[in-house]
């Protein structure tokens, strides 16, 4: 699979840039970007509102909708709009989408879409999504349709297999953007991660120390210290049980070894210890995670070492990122696989 785009860090969020050439005139591409009846054939049904526009992007039975307004318009050159996607109860933070058009030789036009301030973790979905949307646009501009394509976007991929392949590559690209490091010495593997989170320190600290939050990104809570109702915050010396009792080896007993309110939490994790420090920045919260060296072990029929441990913590922080954004976790096993490929190549 060849990607047409790239992901980049945008503070605690991400940006996605995707480009494609079309055998068309500048006027034809501009019309496809701005005329409602044409938009409906490749991206969604456009409706003007009192303060901007709505774009219905879902198929039958879907609530997928984008709300926005035009921020800048240079006819046949540049269009900048605000963009806020929602699907049912899931509402993303506001972002910006910019489209630029330029000639690419005598008979072609280069269209570039740059989507800024996208929530981390979901950037890979946007990368594959925009690549697929530009495939629909190719048909609208007269390209021959593949057998998989259909009339209009409306929530369906132009080529589902190509979308899935692109999504896996974008997941690996996003994992590489924020990859931590591993060190291995005397058969023991340590992990170090740094992640800028799009939330204030107080919200991140809640997610680290309150039972209803911990169980939604780390592991399910089985027992909370001295608190059957599972309401109070973690304290120094607390011991808790997390995991799944129905799966062999899937329960961890954690003891809080160090705790500095709103700044530092250190706890046991198996035979090792994990330290998490929080630092407030102008863009959000910098989370620094250090896992002590863990001896290589056999599990699931193979040796588990640094890439496994690093991919595990990487994926857990991805889940924390989404929890802080009020989003659900999309296929955590796929997130782990993408991260594992990145760490195994270090």
Please report the first level of CATH classification, the CATH class of the largest domain. Answer: Alpha Beta
Instruction: Tell me what portion of residues adopts beta-strand conformation.
Output: 35-45%
What is the total number of structural domains? 2
Number of helices: 8
Reported CATH architecture of the largest domain: 2-Layer Sandwich
| Strands, total number | 20
Residue windows where pLDDT falls under 50 for at least 5 positions: none
Q: Would you identify the CATH H-level superfamily of the largest domain?
A: START domain
Radius of gyration: 23 Å
Quick one: overall form?
A: elongated
Explain this structure.
The chain is an alpha+beta fold. It has two domains: 5-176, Alpha-D-Glucose-1,6-Bisphosphate, Chain A, domain 4 (2-Layer Sandwich); 180-344, Alpha-D-Glucose-1,6-Bisphosphate, Chain A, domain 4. The chain has eight helices and 20 strands. It has helices spanning 26-34, 36-39, 123-140, 160-177, 201-209, 211-217, 306-325, 332-344, and strands at 5-10, 13-22, 45-49, 52-56, 65-68, 70-74, 78-87, 90-91, 95-103, 109-118, 181-185, 188-197, 221-223, 239-243, 251-260, 264-269, 272-280, 285-295, 297-299, 302-304. Strands 1, 2, 3, 4, 5, 6, 7, 8, 9 and 10 form a ten-stranded antiparallel beta sheet that branches. A hairpin with a 2-residue loop joins strand 16 (264-269) and strand 17. 32% of the residues are buried. The mean pLDDT is 90.
Q: Key terms for this structure?
A:
8-stranded antiparallel beta sheet, 346 residues, alpha+beta, 20 strands, Alpha-D-Glucose-1,6-Bisphosphate, Chain A, domain 4, 2 domains, 28% helix
